Amino acid sequence: MKIGIIGTGNVGATAAYALLMQGIGREIVLVDLDKKRAAAEAADLSHAVPFAHALKVRSGDYGELAGSRIVIITAGVAQRPGETRLQLLERNAAIMKDVVCNILTYAPQAILLVTSNPVDIMTHLAARYARECGVESHHVLGSGTTLDTARFRALLSAHVGVDSNHIHGYVVGEHGDSEVLTWSLVNVGNLPLATFCGLHGVPLTAGIKDDIEHQVRDAAYAIIEGKGATYYGIGAALARIVHVILRDQRAILTVCTPMETVAGVEDVTISLPQLVGGDGVLATFHLPLDDAESAALQRSARVIRDAIDSLDAA
To answer: Which residues of the chain does CATH 3.40.50.720 include?
Structure first.
């Protein structure tokens, strides 16, 4: 029940806080190149233990990850002024290789949960480096569109006036601008969304859909503009994924993991509904999308594949 977190910036620290407040796991180990920051975050979190759950929180080196059931990877660097996306990818790829090799040296059985951005590509690379260490791909997953799906359901919940737990709909594809909202499959209490809205007099115009799409797709941009970074939502999403794995819940989550083919695009890592349990990703569900959504998913998969190809060619 030991959980490792690599990187103690806003996302790593918030994920640790979410785990602590929900009582997920028994021990959390924070690892960061900035050891002073990691120690400070561990101390601050430890002071919340009397108000939450009896977890042990400490900082340490990679060797302290030995025995970890799951390790969250948040490490990465921000884009420099004038730096291209490919240059940023190259720097983060080098960091990811070092991080994965260090984790698996001490915790070879750990499931790796990647949230470093761009998360689809970083997860693809993490799985590649893990395979070089003899670890199977299904033990490597990324947070993917888990948060985007939550945003979609939250906005639909507010619009139709039903608890989000009873609204089912997914955001798939890239965690980014090309992500696909699967409107054709949304249901509320087992009723198709359009049927539910018709029965209860809830408007569902093209304009309303466009507004919801805009809020889902651009949520991170708006939050970053207002406060500089997003971390509460993703911190909670990471805690949910960890809980599912530790408890072997076999939940369906829109995480990303390497797949042989998606919408005709080979060897790509993007988000689809995945069955997640104690052994990582157990199965993938390829959704019966409508024609427009299928085409959009193919474009999204191609965005990721092209980025990986550009990185490999650099």
So the answer is: 2-142
Q: Which among 138, 139, 168, 175 is annotated as catalytic?
A: 175
Q: Dump pLDDT digits (tens) for 152-187.
A: 999 999 999 999 999 999 999 999 889 999 999 999
118: preceding bond cis by omega (within 30 degrees): yes
Mark whether 243 is an active-site residue: no
Q: Which amino acid is it at 138?
A: H
* 272-274-278 Cα angle (round to 5): 155
Token pair recorded at residue 273: 């509904």
Distance, in Å, from the CA atom of 10 to the CA atom of 14, rounded to the nearest integer, reads 6
Q: What percent of the chain has pLDDT over 90?
A: 82
Question: Residue type for 146, please?
Answer: T
Angle between helices 193-200 and 146-160 (to 10 degrees): 20
- 2-142: CATH topology is Rossmann fold (3.40.50)
Taking CA atoms, 234 is separated from 41, 60, 112, 182, 241, in Å, by: 18, 23, 16, 21, 10
Q: Residue 9 carries which side chain, given as an amino acid letter?
A: G
* pLDDT tens digits along 106-120: 999 999 999 988 899
CATH number of 146-313: 3.90.110.10
